[in-house]
Write a structure and sequence with these properties.
The protein has 210 residues and is an alpha/beta fold. The chain has one domain: Vaccinia Virus protein VP39 (Rossmann fold). Strands 3-2-1-4-5-10-9 form a seven-stranded mixed beta sheet, with helices on both faces. Strands 6-7-8 form a three-stranded antiparallel beta sheet, with no helix packed on it.
């Protein structure tokens, strides 16, 4: 997965140019900014900083990490302010950071988590946050004709896509499309005021950490 996104870095943001998704994206950009105003936010798998750029100007502080240096270099050119810090890091083994955060965000990351690792990932993330922290995940819904087709499942129920890059290389990429009840059940042991939102092409899960 890390190798795929490193190779895809220069093509990464083209997914946000699909014409049919523009109305959804504008709504999500405004909403996300409102959620994280004045909060100290830990962002997981920030990629090129596409989503970071919308909420960072109103956040108190941002630490955004990604596993690929190639995408972080693009994020560096996009994000401004001494309150924003970019780090190379592993989402499953978060680096030790000063202080604890009252916000967390991951865009288009949940769908890449193997089903057997969801609980462990959430435990690690929550350990870095303050009680009362606001947490948001956003990701894709599967929409025939707009989404890349699913190529195969595995024995654990994960699904995969075959994605081709400009250089002609084809990559097998884990991409799950969880249902709302699965998302809500995963965070239920940790969450208060949990809310699931849905647009035509995307979903969002927002909750407050107990």
């Amino acid at each position: 997965m890390q190798d795929y996104y490193a190779a895809r870095a220069s093509e990464y943001d083209r997914i946000y140019l699909k014409p049919e998704r523009q109305v959804n994206l504008r709504h999500m950009e405004v909403w996300l900014t409102q959620v994280f105003a004045k909060r100290s936010v830990l962002e997981i798998a920030c990629g090129t900083g596409y989503w970071t750029q919308f909420y960072a100007p109103v956040a108190a502080a941002v630490v955004a990490l990604d596993g690929a240096e190639e995408t972080l270099r693009i994020a560096e050119g996009r994000l401004q302010g001494t309150h924003v810090r970019l780090l190379v890091g592993d989402a499953y083994e978060l680096p030790k950071l000063d202080g604890r955060f009252d916000g967390a965000f991951a865009g288009f990351w949940w769908s890449h988590i193997p089903l057997m690792r969801v609980a462990g990932f959430l435990n690690g993330l929550h350990a870095a946050l303050q009680p009362g922290a606001k947490i948001v995940f956003i990701d894709n819904r599967f929409v025939p004709g707009s989404s890349t087709p699913i190529s195969e499942p595995d024995a654990e129920g994960n699904t995969y896509q075959h994605r081709e890059l400009e250089d002609g290389s084809i990559h097998r990429v884990l991409k799950n499309f969880p249902r709302s009840k699965e998302l809500l059940a995963a965070v239920a042991p940790h969450a208060e005021a949990c809310e699931y939102r849905e647009w035509d092409y995307f979903w969002a899960l927002e909750y407050t950490l107990r």
